[in-house]
Inverse folding.
């Protein structure tokens, strides 16, 4: 059985994390970057064999029942993640202080930030009731804080100089898939820019400039290749936005 680990797009990498790994308790992680002089595929094989990752679902189920951890490995280009569930495993001994808990420290990649949080708040039956959460863990996929701050500065700077159509086109082409928290971030961005434009007497940007549905991709699909300046490279979105059980309300 072949273990698939190489995501062929940023969107696929994020989707695999948000929809397949984090919802099933793979919350402990380490990140790494494969040096330019190393073959990524040989590193893949070495790590998969070292930690016994490429096993069947039934083996994973037996490990879980025995109190042992399961692991997954995911890579895009030269960036990789090792993820583990609760339990006993040599991973925790060997990786030690490098291990992070996604419930406390988000996974940041290509301008995205992924974390696992409890909540959301339950509806209050009476006005005097204190806020209470439902206690369920949910995956939150957001634009990372630094990138979103840059986005706000970029669009506010152009709010007075670009037309409504130009700004709407740039917003629609942003390379962030509209998971629910990202939709909220981008809707807030449109409100901020529209407030500035309204004060200047300019036409507001329609909210239809924000993509509301994310694209479902095949994370490990083989992408077509293109030849550019004598190099063979995969055709995928640029990481930089200037270049171009899970609960659905959080995804």
């Amino acid at each position: 059985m072949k273990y698939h680990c190489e995501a062929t797009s940023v969107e696929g990498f994020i989707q695999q994390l948000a929809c397949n790994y984090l919802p099933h308790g793979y919350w402990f992680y380490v990140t790494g970057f494969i040096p330019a002089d190393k073959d990524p595929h040989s590193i893949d094989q070495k790590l998969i064999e070292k930690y016994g990752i490429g096993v069947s679902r039934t083996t994973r189920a037996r490990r879980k029942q025995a109190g042992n951890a399961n692991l997954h490995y995911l890579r895009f280009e030269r960036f990789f993640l090792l993820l583990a569930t609760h339990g006993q495993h040599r991973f925790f001994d060997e990786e030690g202080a490098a291990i992070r808990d996604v419930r406390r420290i988000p996974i940041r990649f290509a301008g995205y930030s992924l974390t696992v949080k409890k909540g959301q708040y339950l509806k209050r039956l009476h006005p005097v009731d204190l806020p209470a959460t439902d206690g369920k863990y949910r995956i939150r996929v957001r634009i990372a804080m630094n990138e979103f701050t840059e986005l706000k500065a970029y669009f506010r700077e152009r709010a007075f100089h670009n037309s409504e159509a130009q700004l709407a086109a740039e917003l629609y082409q942003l390379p962030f898939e509209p998971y629910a928290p990202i939709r909220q971030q981008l809707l807030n961005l449109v409100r901020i820019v529209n407030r500035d434009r309204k004060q200047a007497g300019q036409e507001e940007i329609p909210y239809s400039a924000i993509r509301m549905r994310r694209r479902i991709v095949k994370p490990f699909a083989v992408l077509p290749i293109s030849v550019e300046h004598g190099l063979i490279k995969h055709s995928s979105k640029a990481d930089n936005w200037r270049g171009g059980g899970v609960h659905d309300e959080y995804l």
